[in-house]
Structure prediction request, 324 residues.
Amino acid sequence: METLRTHPCIARYPGNPILSREDLPYPSDLTFNAGVIPWQGGYAMVFRNDYGYDGRGFKGTNIGLAFSPDGLHWHVEPEPVLEARDEEVLRFYDPRLTVIDDDIYMCFAADTKHGLRGGIARTYDLRHFEVLSLSVPDNRNMVLFPEKIGGMYMRLERPMPVYSRGRDRFDIWQSESPDLIHWGNSHLVAAVEDFPFANDKIGPGAPPVRTRAGWLAACHAVDRDDSRGKNGWEEKWTKRYCATIVLLDLDEPWKMIGHGRVPLLVPEAPYEAEQGFRTQVAFPTAMLRMSDGAIRIYYGAADTVVALATAREEDLIELCLKGE
Ligand code: BMA
Prediction:
């Protein structure tokens, strides 16, 4: 795979990473993949925390909660807010947050004894979660649109059809629901082959943001190179996760108006490419539209920390429309 470069419209926050294990008052090895929303005049974040690494695996995963006055500096609450304690569900992870009509929803992945499931939960305080729906396996990387479209709730998702598509040829789909419980009327939105720099799989990243030109949604796009050997803590890690961006029709969000044909954010900084558990990972999970025309993109870096990058909304639209 050729050398990939981060798009010039991206500026990494100089204070990266914005959250790491050192910030947590409870056991943590990896603090990453976070949902972020405006909250009570500031910002709230839920994030994935993997803990208890013994050289081979982790003892567990929980979801942590943090607050910030500016979205840059974060204070972590004393205890995690969610952890699976169930015979069937092994863990919850990769939370994404969306506010719809003043209600807060968290999409999450759930590893269960019988497959990977995508879930949606409602919360009023970010501490108590009512699970509304869990997909059939295998599905994850769900994100909700922040408003109903044509009277229906909308989500992007990433089913994993191993049997029919071959290993890891996974695409982005959209489904709709009248009540956030029953989902259907699904469409293919974007396929791996739409992204020349990906040869493996793609998936939704951040819940979409409304713009004048369409819904902007940051996604991940993966290239795999089996010659990549030891990277990070594992013996072998052959994938690279770049962030990319797509622009979807405002009224028919399964229609892609445009998308990046070059990556948006390539793991290059030391905390993305060199340090941590799985090097070469930039995994976007949240986007905020700021009042000054900037879009903030929060992403997991190296599956180890939470990082932040910004771009002008108009530059992201142009990138999608031109492809580069
Ligand atoms: C995906 C998920 C994410 C993770 C990413 C990179 O398949 O497991 O949680 O950040 O891989 O390792």
